[in-house]
Write a structure and sequence with these properties.
This protein is α+β, with helices and mostly antiparallel strands and 102 residues long. Helices cover 29% and strands 41% of the residues. The two termini are 27 Å apart.
């Protein structure tokens, strides 16, 4: 499982606060193309996120895991869970155009 954590690092207090978390679970596929279940957790602190329920979930299928960077997987997960607005969804093909030309 891949865990993506978003942390806020205060320049004033030097305190580090986890403010968001995403889980990406491998569901199978092939060596070249992966299928993943993704979800985000409710909460705005590490304690809340540790016990928080799933807020959104989706699937990312056919991800070219050996050809493009994991950040593309994170971006696809966010789009699949509808964190991106309508404008980004309309341009989904453009967002990942680099992988098409390889």
């Amino acid at each position: 499982m891949i865990v993506v954590r978003v942390e806020l690092h205060s320049a004033i207090t030097r305190e580090v606060t986890e403010i968001a978390r995403m889980h990406i679970r491998n569901r199978g596929g092939t060596k070249q193309l992966g299928d993943y279940a993704v979800d985000t957790v409710r909460g705005r602190s590490r304690e809340q996120l540790d016990r928080g329920p799933c807020v959104r979930s989706a699937e990312v299928n056919g991800y070219p895991r050996l050809r493009i960077h994991v950040w593309h997987l994170v971006a696809r997960a966010l789009i699949a869970m509808r964190y991106a607005g309508a404008k980004e969804l309309e341009q989904e093909g453009d967002l990942f155009a680099a992988q098409e030309g390889e």
